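Help!! Second protein's tokens look totally different from the first
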Amino acid sequence: MNIRYGDLEYDALRAHIIRLCHSGLGKERAQELAPFIGEKCITKSLALISQIQECLRRGLDFNFEDLCPVEKLFVSAEFSIFGFEEFRTIYQNTRLSNVISRHHEDLDDFRELHIQIKRLQYLPEICARFDQIFDAEGEVLDSASPELARIRKRAQSLRGSILKTMQNMMSDSRFERFLQDKFVTQREDRFVLPIKEGAAANVPGIVQSHSGSKSTLFIEPESVVPLNNELQMIKQEEKREIYRIFSVFTTEIKALRESILGNVSILAELDFRYSCGRFSNTIGARIPRIVHEPILELRTARHPLLILKLGNVREVIPFDLSLGKDYRIVILSGPNTGGKTVLMKSAGLITLMALSGLPVPADEDSKIGMFESVFADIGDDQSIENALSTFSSHVEKIQRMLTEADENSLVLIDEIGAATDPQQGSALAQAILERFGSIGSRLIVTTHYTALKIFGEQTNAVVNASMQFDLKSLHPTFRFSIGFPGDSFAIEVASSLGMESSLIERAKSLSGSQNTQFTELLKKMQDEKKARARATYEFELKTRNLATRLTEAESKEAKLEEELKARRQKYIKDLQNELIAQQKLYTKELEELKTLERGERKSVSEKKLHAINERLDEVREELVSASSEKRKKVFQAKPGDRVWLPGFQTEATVLEIRDNQALVDMNGISFKTPVDSLFEANQAAEKEPAQSYGFVHADVHARFELKLLGLTFDEAQPLIDEFIDDAVIAGLHNLRIVHGKGTGILRSKVRDYLCRKKQVLGIDTPPMNQGGSGVTLVKI
């Protein structure tokens, strides 16, 4: 891709991303930031960085400061056996990769980032072995190997023997008077005693050293020489064992070379990508739409570096820009210091950012095309070394653009045709624009030439645009406007900058009536545009209000229908509850009548109960119908089928079909229900939370489990009675009573009471993983 990074400040943007990297490797990777060639690479990069932005907003960040290069450790002969520093470098990199790789399950919602992190090889054995060998200061631990622990234990024992022997000598009256000091020290790594000069003959042993003043001799007593010798041998064994440990650990690490180097490469990439995410969040960047055709449609776009400079996104005035569809050339005019160059740089830099896979400071509905080339000629390029004037330098660069540009090129030229005679410069500029138009390139150029503004009004695929100027305050507004040329307002700007009023008046008289008329025309066009914009806004506002009211009306209608349906179901459920309550009452009365009365009263009561049951069946049918409007009945159910139980508003599995009764399993609980109450289980249908209302063998009060935790038996007994009665009426057979383990008193009383109830067929204790002795299973 042909670009001049300096002209568009791409280098400055890249330098900021480099500064945000934590590690040297991340900075090296960021240094390679450049536009991609393929659309697939761009979209993947945009998705990855966007996901990192969201992770950063959620507080999921990583510190890459410990990341270090390790490739030389595997290729240089200098590192045939690693030392502590090399091991620590490998350890730090591996620990970082292990920490990050453990987070891949937390990133399932972020596909691209999850893929990157999942590529990391999890190598816990390296970190575990390092911690086993070294302490924080780099000293080798006894845990490095059993042999090393044995050697050091033997050495410690020898030191104890030596010190004990020498302590005895210092306490011996035969040697005490010859001691210079009463302490044991070491010379040449051997334990010695400080003896007075001239007393050496009285202390049998080997003189290892003497003090600087020659007044003290350091003698290794004869009795500890063999022990010192053995200690030296042990130390040699220790060194050999440590060398062996380092050698083996080095070999183990080098065997994992590809995994370690691969992790380092991935971590460097992640460090770079996270810096891009931090930068993108700082400037409020979003993912634009990357399209194949070379176009620009920027919405609420801002210059990224200007955001950084001002420190706040809202401080930068946004702009909308379209280029490439209705017109291929934008001629941008307006006052000096009005923001023309900044806007053109913004468009170029945002394009380069998107083509580099970076989110941009613009709305998500912005479109950026796959430009194959981006050319820019911005700023004063006078070259003393090459003896080129500013004009000559511009001409040379534009000639190169004309040679290399095509229909997939974006060309940005600041002050086209400037730095020479205005009449000839504007003519040359128009000729250049005509040539670019024939090539088909997309152009944004800035100018003060009136002739080019006229060319923009008269030529197809060319449009004028301007940066606005406030004539009241005599200051630029930095607001971009498409469709109208702008005046330079040179005299007005000079006046606002404090130039002498007499010079301003003289300049106005010399500027001639033509320039004044052109300025007035621009003012008139701007006023007309404002009026049309106001009328358009009012029309759009009315349209939006009408659409909002229509949406509200539709919403209210849907809400009323839903409310009506809910009320109908509530009425049916309330009626069902009332009938069930009456059913329970009459059932209880019937039980009493059976023991006290006979004949006619019993017959009347049974008839009443029968009538209530019939009415309950009718209500049940209404509820089933209301809750199963979107489902079909199951006509040929067979064991293993998944069915919908409208009374419970949940699914169950058919276990057995017999005599128009289906034995079903609902979440581990089995019971019977009529076959005609089964409906098809439809995954796409709306699923509501499981409830306990609505079919012939179950009611809203019936439960499968009763909790008695913390109650006395007297408090629990009425609850047990109601629990059993409800279950009998609902047609439930397998129940659970949770009473807890505790002292066992409540469990014993509950089970004794259950055994005396005629509805209970048997009781049992569930497995330990289902409550054990703290739960009683009841079969009724």
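Here's the second one for comparison:
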Amino acid sequence: MKKIASITALCLSFFLAFAKQDPLVLNPYKASFDKAYLLYPELPKGVLEAVAFTNSRFHHITHQPGEEGSCMGLPKAYGVMGLTLDGQNYFRNNLLEVAQLSGYSKEDIINDPEKNILAYARAFNFIYSIHKNIDIELSYNLGHTFTELSELPNGTDQVLAENFALSTQLYEYLSFLNSDQYSALYGFPKYNIDLENYFGANYKVLSAKSITVSSDEIKNNNGDVYRYDPNNNVQSPDYGPAIWNPASSCNYSSGRSASVTAVTIHDVEGSYAGAISWFQNCQASVSAHYVVRSSDGQITQMVLESNTAWHVGTENSYTVGIEHEGYQSQTGWYTVAMYTASAALTADICASHNISLLRTGFWPWLPTTYYNQSSIPGSCCKVKGHMHFPNQTHNDPGPNWDWDYYYKLIDPPSVNSTLTTATGNFYDSGGPNNNYSDDERSIWTISPANATSVTLTFSSFDVENTWDYVYIYDGPDVWSPRIGYWTGTNSPGTVTANSGTMTIEFRSDCATNSTGWNAAWTSSSNIVLPTNLAVTQNTCPQIGVTLNWNNSGAGWYVDVSDDPNFGTFYNKAVANLTNVACPGGFCDYPNCTTYLKFRPNTTYYWRIWNGSSETNGTPFTTPVCSTTDNNCSGTIDDSGGPSNSYSGNEDYTYTISPTNASSVSVNFSAFDLETNFDSLYIYDGATINAPLIGSYTGTNSPGNISSTGGSVTLHFISDPFVNNTGFAATWSCTQLSTGLSESDELSQLGIYPNPAGNEADLHYLLKDEGPVKVELVDMLGRELILSNRQQAGGEHALHIDINALALAKGLYDVRIITSKGNANIKLIVK
């Protein structure tokens, strides 16, 4: 944990100053859901939350007597589970069905949130138990149960394959159960249901966020080809990314009596699936051109733009209508995915019908001006809510719709001008003497070099009251934190951006301009460039340096890299410091997940930097820390010696290579390294390229180790942090025979090659005839007789087949025994 804490403390983090966040949908009725699962223990946890989230976002939906419902007449839903009481002879009255199966009264189900949940749970458990005894797959058990309790019509298996609305609802329920995010947030196990297997070919349509269509196929962004109904192409004729699922022809008019000049933003006052299904109902007498899903922004087109959908009363003839899943009085429905998809759709509609994107409603008072149609002259605002059209009584999409965010998405902003001087004058587009223009959207960014703040002071201010606005942001763009907005003659006065960058956005409508403004800006900077950069090199075995400088205020960092161009670098905050010691504390930028560990014999570059200014230090090259000892015996300790700990960021090698040695043995009497972060590597040879005997960390001591040749190499590496007591060891060697161990009877002993690999030959001179025994003895004293026979005097040779004898690597004694004397010689098998 120490490393994670260090990274958290030292890493440089960059935060997006402004980002639209999806609302966090909490479950205020968790206790009631828990009670339901206790009452019905066989009920799979999460199924109730899946229905409640999809249908109500955990709101207890109620309706007042005489209350106006959905603008498209969609049947009203009730309670946390979103149940339908009066399906108007099209939707199923599933509230009454739940009441019948559960025994709860319809009044209790409508008025009491907990009874609403418990009644649905009992009904679900009853149907689920029946299917559980028949079916095998959990997904099909759940699917059948969800279908039988759905308010949507056509719930049979045969129709399900062709019913897009019901399939959409089931997809939302089952994908909720598959979600890591929702399982963690609402406390149920993730189910890993195979949705592709369950929905078959329909899966790719149901899950698609963006679709490309042609005359005979539909593709997603990965190039997968799919169709919703094998007998019909599922394609949106007007908008490629949308799904085409036409409304019943009884719910719209063919053709147009006027050109398309406006877009109407609605909310469903219900679900995505419900809206799609409702538009198939001839008794509804309502439709919209498009419907947008909350969870992921999926779009279904239901009426051609060339036809007249029935969605905004007397204004249908010239408008395109977009319904958005959700309820205008609730939070949790208008997600980033929905806004983004809807904005792209609206921009496409505007491009197709020559509607200026600047005519999108944005005014701060839009969400609350429900019925005041006269506030939005038809000649100017072309993209607006249902409530903003003439002769309307509905108030969708309501107070929770973020018109300013939607405006920015529809017409992505770009900066007209960047002003970089420390001071200057700032005017509207008409300059100091003339008016600005109508239909204007201008953006300026004031960003002086090294500025810590920017202050803008207005000496005059006059823009059309209520309709033209100046927005000011503390940051580099319109997504930065907003300082405020101003209209009329309500001057901003003096405004300061403490980030060192200020963005000003001006929006005017299509009529009536004014003199605008005169202003001037100043900026502040307390930048003091670092000086006297110097390097103090560490000595072996610690590989590193101390970097020194003067003058670094807040916001400065030291970067170290082996790339002279700093393509990648290691980074540490150094505010108000005058030096930093390496090793230690350098995290890699921008990830900040690993630390710099210096490599031997490598050149490094460094700089002191604040994001816009930098001062470079003198490069430094790390040394190669290595030692070779040629003695046949000795002791070795870590760099701290027998009493102290070793240092951080060490990287050194110690080679033991005694003169004329046949093997080296090392015996460790103490061993304690930081587990997993500091390690000792031991190699069977004179370099770190030799075969690895083993790597050791923590208290996993090497114990006694022996080389197969005359050298052994120890390579020690430590990280910059915890340093333990280290290690202590002694070594000894076995030396090769330089002459032969001869007796009076034997002479001229020799083995070649030695060391040997696969085979070797033993040579000796026998003075007299007699019995001769040749033995091979390993280091543990185990004997192997190679030959035992009568031999005449003279020169003799014995072939030793090492492979056939299966001799392991190591040192062996070859002994020649006669009746008159003995001799021996060493054999090394490599």
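Reply: Different proteins will give different token patterns, so don't panic. Residues 651 and 717 are 5 Å apart (CA to CA).
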